[in-house]
Design goal:
The protein is α+β, with helices and mostly antiparallel strands. The protein contains 15 helices and ten strands. Helix 3 crosses helix 7 and helix 4 crosses helix 6. The longest helix has 22 residues.
């Protein structure tokens, strides 16, 4: 069992909390304590499992529990990355889903034009947002066959527990497509340094426990096709959301990252705080097709249903008048906005609010602040809030 524990961190992180030497020391020491006996092999510090071997034990709860416990340790304090060979035994299921998803991409290209995303310019890659719902809408039968998979359920429950929620986004990288910038992922990976320092250190640790990152290979992915670059153990570093934006950490990543070849039907899952980036597709003829998975904890819900749009519309004219009458300080207004409007930008419809100009679109609170600062009339504010709702619907 891996007993190496990362050093304690202060209650609040600042830019001064970041140390490349401390980061290197921790991941170097952690790599010396790997012990994952159920893996069929360990390649480049990444444990690899045979999904079909695991499936043969699905009727043996004690065996499955041992697998899941081992994966939990890997994702929590181990390398943070797991590869499953033969996640899909029947590759016809992959081919069928690929065909449906490609047809959706082709159709969207006709109506929306060539699109990239916040890590790739148009022409280098193609992205299908909300592939999960779109696959279900286009071919419920294909969706059912694609998602009738034990290994996704097992790894999701090993990290998130039950009630998890799956979202997927297809990423296609064409020959010549460039590598991504190394990053951490959702939630905190989508926030700026100025935002990150507002959260106590334990929330930085908690963020990674709210989601699981994964990808299913829809084609063979040799190294020249640019499979995901990963830095095992990097998720352990608590100030890592601040660190990954620094050039010295990115340089270390580029020098020390690893990549694992995948075959069609293989799957990879990792702690979202693991430093990672899609690689450059240096091949001449491989169109790298991956269905990315962002699996969320079912605990990310409030206890009651609250119509914050309705509240905001009712509050806005009264609050505007009270501010004009000097009833509140600026700090008071911030407290009131926080009590009323939704402060988080997600979930969003990334087809409409694709964050090409930033990692997150405006929240309800941002709109209310803007409305008060710019003196919007009530009709304008209400229309903007209605548009906010409309832009979060799928179609």
């Amino acid at each position: 069992m891996n007993k190496h524990v990362a050093p304690e961190t202060p209650e609040w992180l600042t830019e001064d909390s970041v140390s490349l030497d401390a980061f290197i020391a921790d991941i170097t020491q952690a790599a010396k304590h790997m012990h994952y006996p159920l893996a069929v092999e360990i390649q480049k510090n990444i444990p690899i499992y045979d999904a079909q071997l695991i499936a043969s034990h699905i009727g043996e709860p004690a065996v499955i529990a041992r697998y899941m416990a081992e994966w939990t340790r890997i994702l929590r304090e181990g390398p943070g990355v797991i590869v499953f060979r033969r996640a899909y035994k029947d590759l016809a299921v992959i081919d069928e889903a690929t065909s449906v998803l490609q047809s959706i991409i082709d159709e969207e290209r006709k109506t929306m034009g060539q699109r990239g995303d916040y890590f790739g310019k148009p022409g280098d890659n193609a992205r299908l947002w909300n592939a999960h719902e779109k696959l279900c809408a286009a071919s419920p039968e294909s969706f059912a066959r694609y998602n009738a998979l034990d290994i996704v359920s097992l790894i999701s429950r090993a990290w998130l527990g039950p009630l998890y929620q799956i979202t997927t986004q297809v990423n296609i990288v064409y020959p010549g497509g460039k590598a991504q910038t190394p990053h951490r992922d959702y939630h905190m990976g989508f926030q700026s340094a100025a935002q990150l320092v507002q959260y106590p250190a334990h929330v930085h640790q908690l963020s990674a426990a709210l989601t699981l990152q994964g990808a299913v290979a829809h084609c063979d992915m040799p190294l020249e096709s640019g499979p995901t670059k990963l830095l095992p153990f990097s998720h352990r570093y608590v100030p890592g959301y601040l660190a990954i934006t620094r050039k010295e950490f990115r340089a270390y990543f580029e020098e020390h990252h690893v990549q694992v070849e995948l075959k069609k039907g293989d799957a990879i899952f990792f702690n979202p705080a693991t430093f990672h980036a899609a690689g450059t597709n240096t091949s001449k003829d491989i169109v790298r097709f991956a269905n990315l998975m962002q699996i969320g904890s079912g605990y990310g819900r409030s206890i009651e249903v609250v119509d914050r749009i309705r509240m905001s519309k009712l509050l806005f004219p009264k609050l505007k008048a009270m501010i004009a009458a000097s009833a509140f300080s600026e700090r008071d207004v911030e407290h009131i906005i926080a009590a009323c409007a939704e402060g988080y930008s997600f979930p969003v419809n990334l087809d409409i609010d694709s964050p090409l100009s930033g990692m997150a679109p405006p929240s309800q609170q941002d709109l209310m602040r803007q409305a008060l600062a710019e003196g919007w009339d009530d009709q304008t504010f209400n229309a903007k809030m209605d548009d906010y709702v409309t832009r979060r619907r799928t179609h």
